[in-house]
Write a structure and sequence with these properties.
The protein is of the alpha/beta class. The protein is built from 7 helices and 5 strands; from the N terminus they run βααβααβααβαβ. It has one domain: Rossmann fold (3-Layer(aba) Sandwich), CATH 3.40.50. 49% of the residues lie in helices and 13% in strands. α7 links the parallel β4 and β5. The longest helix has 13 residues.
């Protein structure tokens, strides 16, 4: 049986920014299961923008390094989805109800709309236990 989840940037960034990162081996295993088709992973297309921002500004990757990293993510087998314009009110509600950034609320909205959980290491998202799970707690 294929397990389906929503994956956020806090997980995928661990593949590229290994210094001072925890759960790197677990992340590599998780991503290999996605690539093998044993886990069906979804993410908002915006994850690529979020990752570009973190890799280029926070982690100071070169342009080539950012492009290579994003290409690797695109080849991973994640199904990318766009925000339905009719769902902006739901997105706003999640932002205010849970005190989330819009991009974190986007993962939550996607998970809720698909009936899945977000695999994350984001502390605010992990507080929403009904819809989010940490990588260590995910039964692989």
């Amino acid at each position: 049986m294929i397990k389906s989840v929503v994956v956020d940037a806090s997980i995928l960034l661990k593949l590229f920014s290994r210094e001072k990162e925890s759960l790197v081996k677990e992340t590599e295993r998780f991503c290999s299961l996605i690539k093998l088709g044993k886990i069906q992973a979804f993410a908002p297309t915006f994850i690529l923008v979020e990752m570009l921002n973190v890799l280029s500004i926070t982690k100071r990757f070169t342009e080539e390094g950012v492009n290579n990293s994003l290409e690797r993510v695109k080849r991973l087998g994640v199904t990318f989805t766009d925000l339905n314009i009719a769902d902006t009110d739901k997105l706003t509600d999640l932002c205010f109800r849970h005190n989330l950034t819009a991009y974190d609320a986007l993962y939550l909205l996607l998970a809720m709309s698909l009936g899945l959980r977000v695999v994350t290491e984001d502390k605010k998202l992990l507080k929403i236990k009904e819809h989010c799970v940490g990588l260590k707690s995910l039964k692989l």
